[in-house]
Amino acid sequence: MDIPAGDHLAYMKHALELARNSPPKPTNYRVGAVLVNPARNAVLATGYTLELEGNTHAEQCCFMKLAEEHGIGEEQLGDVLPDGLALYTTMEPCSKRLSGNLPCVSRVLRLAGSIKTVYVGVLEPAKFVQNTGIKTLEDAGISVVHVQGLEQEILEVATAGHEKSG
Fold it and tell me: What is the mean pLDDT of residues 109-136?
């Protein structure tokens, strides 16, 4: 995959394509995530909702796969990753999980020494929980940038499997 350096829309489109792999369910958003090293314009890891066993989110899968690749626990990823990384995620990282799993914002914060910018396609709709992901990340010094242009498509993919009202 050849994405020109700094082409945030192209990386978000890649994350959206990943989200399409997630099985439609009424209780999850289908989200895709891509972790990029902008200095090398290299994709370090990808993930999508429910890619791995359990009630896994896109960012969680991304980090779990990368940790496995390095032969370490997810908690130790910050020790081996370079700084200046960018995370592209089709939806704002969750700040609360009803399943009891660690929220994705907390997972990103563990990597705050490495992840400097989070690019999001849409804010999380307040259907399941009230999300404060962007504010939490910004308060911790991580830049959050809205990549515009794919909002409708992202929401259509994210909510596939949800009951439509009206």
Answer: 84
The amino acid sitting at 2 is: D
Whether the CA torsion 94, 91, 39, 116 is positive or negative: it is: negative
- Per-residue H/E/C for 75-136: HHHHHHCCCCEEEEEEECCCCCCCCCCCCHHHHHHHCCCCEEEEEEEECCCCCCCCCCHHHH
- Listed residue (71, 110, 113, 81) closest to 93, CA to CA: 110
Tokens of 6: 């700094």
Residues tagged active-site: 59
CA dihedral 139, 48, 16, 128 (to 10 degrees): -60
d(Cα 90, Cα 28) in Å, to the nearest integer? 14
Cβ within 8 Å of residue 33, ≥6 positions away: 15, 18, 46, 47, 48, 58, 59, 61, 62, 87, 88, 89, 90
For residue range 8-18, list pLDDT tens digits in order. Answer: 999 999 999 99
Q: What one-character DSSP code corresponds to residue 28?
A: -
